[in-house]
Design brief:
alpha/beta; Rossmann fold; eight-stranded mixed β-sheet; 8 strands; 16% strand; globular
């Protein structure tokens, strides 16, 4: 089993969209039953990309607070990706869940192992932006961390703090690997182009060699509650995500 954590230091970078659409791209290459997306973000937005927003089933928060295990059959399925939502529980449930995560640093990894997923499964985890108890859980179990950034001044300003965090986590977990994914690239805009070039020089090989271009189809696909690779399979973003999925598979197999 391989676990990919998708994180960011700031919000608004399209982290959840990258998680969902990358999961769909991986499923297209690996086949049905191989890819699971887990929402560890209290915003509970990952499920929207898979048309699951109307479901009333409990998510990771409620199940965990009640000490109920995740089971393979509990994961609602769509677009060849099994998606476990965070859940829309009460505030007291969220607080109890975060207390559980704080007291059991390896909880997430252990829960995934007990969930009945196949040995060749690929699990993607979406977590809230910034340093949090959720992000710490992701670091503790992930094989690969993808840091989503934009080619803007705000994202660039977060790089030093992110690098410090990654350095600490990679010392703590020696087998952990990480890379940056540049999202919403628009080289027709001078500032976007300049910051993208600056990030390339600063991060070097730590920046995934393919960015995801700005593409209105990504937002339109979300409005129709489906991955962009289904909504617009021949679009620029879909092409980029397909290439990113190939890169992730190769990285996990190294």
């Amino acid at each position: 089993m391989s676990i990919v954590g998708v994180i960011s230091m700031k919000g608004g970078v399209g982290k959840t969209s990258v998680t969902a659409n990358l999961a769909a791209a991986l499923a297209g290459k690996l086949g049905e039953g191989r890819v699971t997306a887990i929402d560890l973000d209290p915003q509970n937005g990952l499920q929207w990309h898979f048309g699951l927003e109307a479901q009333d089933s409990d998510g990771v928060c409620e199940l965990s607070v009640r000490s109920e295990p995740w089971r393979r059959e509990d994961l609602p399925s769509g677009f060849n990706v099994d998606c476990m939502p965070y859940g829309a529980g009460a505030e007291r449930d969220r607080e109890a869940f975060e207390t559980l995560l704080e007291h059991e640093p390896d909880w997430l990894g252990a829960q995934i192992k007990r969930s009945g997923l196949s040995k060749d499964a690929v699990v993607l985890i979406d977590s809230p932006p910034g340093v949090s108890v959720y992000q710490k859980q992701v670091f503790a179990c992930a094989d690969l961390i993808l840091v989503v950034v934009l080619a803007d001044a705000g994202s660039y300003a977060t790089i030093p703090a992110m690098e410090t965090c990654l350095d600490e986590m990679e010392k703590k977990y020696p087998n952990l690997r990480s890379a940056y994914v540049l999202n919403q690239v628009d080289r027709s805009k001078s500032l976007n182009r300049d910051v993208a070039d600056l990030l390339q020089r600063y991060l070097g090989e730590r920046l995934v060699p393919m960015g995801i271009h700005a593409d209105s189809a990504v937002g339109e696909a979300l409005a129709f509650h489906q991955p962009v690779l289904v909504y617009d399979p021949h679009g620029q973003a879909s092409h980029d995500l397909d290439r990113l999925a190939s890169w992730v598979i190769e990285a996990l197999n190294q």
